[in-house]
Amino acid sequence: MDRETPTQEKYFLMPDSFKGTMDAIEVCRIMKASILRHDPAAQVISVPIADGGEGTVDCFLHAFGGKKRTVRVTGPYGKPMWACYGRIGETAVVEMAAVSGFSKGKEGKNDPSAATTYGVGELMKAAVSDGMKKIILGLGGSCTNDGGAGMAAALGVKFYDAKGEEFIPAGKDLDRICRIDTAECERTLKGVEIEAMCDIDNPLYGPNGAACVFAPQKGADPDMVKRLDQNLRVYARRILEATGIDVSLLTGGGAAGGMGAGASALLGAELKQGIDVILDLLNFETILRECKVIFTGEGQLDRQSLGGKVVVGIARRARKAEVPVIAVVGTVKGDVSPIYDLGVEKVFQTDPGIYRSEEELKKNCRRDLERTMDRVLTQM
User: Fold this and answer.
1) Is the pLDDT assigned to residue 366 strictly greater than 70?
2) What is the predicted pLDDT for the residue at 4?
3) Does the residue 5 lie in any domain?
4) Which of 38, 187, 261, 310 is the most buried (most CB within 10 A)?
5) Which residues pair with residue 344 across a beta bridge?
6) Domain end (from 241, 274, 307)
């Protein structure tokens, strides 16, 4: 009598980072080890998720393969530096945080009015020169507030002041712009598709805009915030005059110091939820066939999580394929019960709530995730 061959179950791991404790790659590693202890024959597919900020390139390369290309570029305060982008076939993954992020600034107090995204544009230009036909641009973790003008300048957009002299604007002098010429940039980017990973919906300016909401986190005092916001208003008018595109109410225009608006209007980028960019690149609905379950998660599940970021973004699309989604998260804050109507089957919290300090939490977080996964898998 022939023995039946056990069915190989397929599991998808798609967690975001547990910010402050574990990055998404490490979360995947722990989840995978737990699954294989319970089901040694399992097929486990790990797709660590990043939101466009620091670590985006590493997550994409871990999930899709490819390699890094290192380029000499301009840092946020003008100093030369090395930065890399990811190459996946003819697709380049560029994270602005690798060039114009908090960790790339000068020593001492940050100055978002002076910081530039020029180096991000140089990285993108290098990718185009290397033959990349698509650029995925991660918007997140910036120390800048230049509306992406520096990035655009590196790609050939020309900015002119009242004297007709060309200059590269920063946040402090966006109001000097009198004319914008995009012709050279259009030639540079001809035939190149750009998708910007944008997980916030803030507009370019105003009370909820780039300067008012985010510039204080980057070192701006109240006077600087006011000036930066006024300058972004001028910038929006100049963009409208040059392109016919009104970025004033663009959802996500305020991302990364206004880079969402600049990328959209000056480079022709499409602003998309980061998770949708990843799922589309995966051909998500196709590869879900015969999948037993998807494990996702993040450091804290709260009302903001219901807005369609990683957990809900995955759940909505998995639901159509009738694949269950289990969220394993660090902590749950507030009432998140609506998440069950959005496609998440169960939520498990790893933090036992007994730690007295952040240090104690960090020390035990890996063990807590492992124990939680063991509990989940035992119940399945």
Assistant:
1) yes
2) 43
3) no
4) 261
5) 325
6) 274
- In terms of domains, do 74 and 208 share one? yes
Instruction: pLDDT band for 251, please (50, 70, 90 cuts).
Output: very high
More confident residue, 200 or 244: 244
In a domain? residue 314: yes
Distance CA(258)–CA(229), nearest Å, equals: 10
Whether residues 208 and 297 share a domain: the answer is no
pLDDT confidence of 284, banded at 50, 70, 90? Answer: very high
266/295 same-domain check: no
Q: What is the pLDDT of residues 50-90, one digit of tens each?
A: 878 888 999 999 999 999 999 999 999 999 999 999 999 99
Contact 283, 309 (CB under 8 A): no
Convert the chain into a string of H (helix), E (strand) and C (coil): CCCCCCCCCEEEEEECCECCCECHHHHHHHHHHHHHHHCCCCEEEECCCCCCCCCHHHHHHHHHCCEEEEEEEECCCCCEEEEEEEEECCEEEEECHHHHEHHHCCCCCCCCCCCCCHHHHHHHHHHHHCCCCEEEEECCCECCCCCCHHHHHHCCCEEECCCCCEECCCHHHHHHCCEEECHHHHHHCCCCEEEEECCCCCCCCCCCCHHHHHHHHHCCCHHHHHHHHHHHHHHHHHHHHHHCCCCCCCCCCCHHHHHHHHHHHHHCCEEECHHHHHHHHHCHHHHCCCEEEEEEECCEECHHHHHCCHHHHHHHHHHHCCCCEEEEECEECCCCHHHHHHCEEEEEECCCCCCCCHHHHHHHHHHHHHHHHHHHHHHC
Is the Cβ–Cβ distance between 17 and 27 less than 8 Å?
yes
Domain coverage including residue 354: 10-49+283-379
Residues 293-303: tens digit of each pLDDT: 999 999 999 88
**Which residue carries 């190459």 as its tokens?**
87
CA 59 to centroid of chain Cα atoms: 11
CA distance 374 to 38: 8
Angle, CA of 161, 164 and 167, to the nearest 5°: 50
CATH of the domain at 330: 3.40.50.10350
Q: What would the two tokens of residue 335 be?
A: 């009432």
pTM comes to: 0.91
